[in-house]
Amino acid sequence: MRHRIRRIVNIVIAITAFAAWIWMTFGREGIFLKNGIGNLKFFTVLSNLMEGIASVVWLLSGNADAAMRDRAERFKFIAAVSVMLTFTTIMAFLGPLYGYGMMFIGANMFYHLLIPIAAFAEIVFLSEREYTLRDNNIAVIPTLLYGVFYISNCVVNGPENGDWYWFLAWGYPVGILIFIGICIVTWLLAFVMRKLQKRILMNAR
Fold first, then answer.
1. What is the DSSP code string of 20-42?
2. How does residue 29 score in pLDDT terms, banded at 50, 70 and 90?
3. Hey, which of 162, 176, 182, 202 has its CA 20 to 30 A from 66?
């Protein structure tokens, strides 16, 4: 029964992740909606699309060998942590700064709230795989890679063209420290999700 519910959740996540991107790409509402494929520069969009891809991979791995299923489970965990970083940023920083109502307009209702919550609930309450410290550490890689891309783009094109999150408003050293802090938050999110999932899994057995 749990596996069947999880399949339904992943189907819904996959559909909504790509549908919301199409909506965002061609839509016109919301200050945080970027029209066109230029929205692919934002971590919010990339993390949610990764979650959608991870759901498709997980669904397709059902009849694969054990190693492939295990890789799909790890991918799901990594993607869920990434969208939870987006959710945490919205709830702790951007929401208080701009108002929560502005965060949930149009496609961002899915990207900022619904998909992250669904991804979190799926891993914590429905997954039967025991995630490890290695999984915890690997979950930081997407955030780290994005930080490297972000800083490198600012170096090449200048902060005036590449600093769309204003991380470098106080200079490169502070911007780099901010990204280190974000990586630490990502690791902590993975840790909390892993421990919650483990406790729920133990209680279910």
1. HHHHHHH----TT---SGGGGGS
2. low
3. 202
Helices (H), the chain: 2-26, 43-60, 66-89, 95-98, 100-103, 108-109, 115-121, 133-138, 141-157, 159-162, 172-204
Report the SS3 class of residue 175: helix
pLDDT digits (tens, 9 = 90+) for 115-163: 999 999 999 999 999 999 999 999 999 999 999 999 999 999 998 888 9
What is d(CA 180, CA 159) in angstroms, rounded to the nearest whole number?
A: 18
Exposure string of 125-157, with b = 16+ CB inside 10 Å and e = fewer, is bbbebebeeebbebbbebbeebbeebbebbeee
Q: How far apart are CA 53 and CA 15, in angstroms?
A: 10
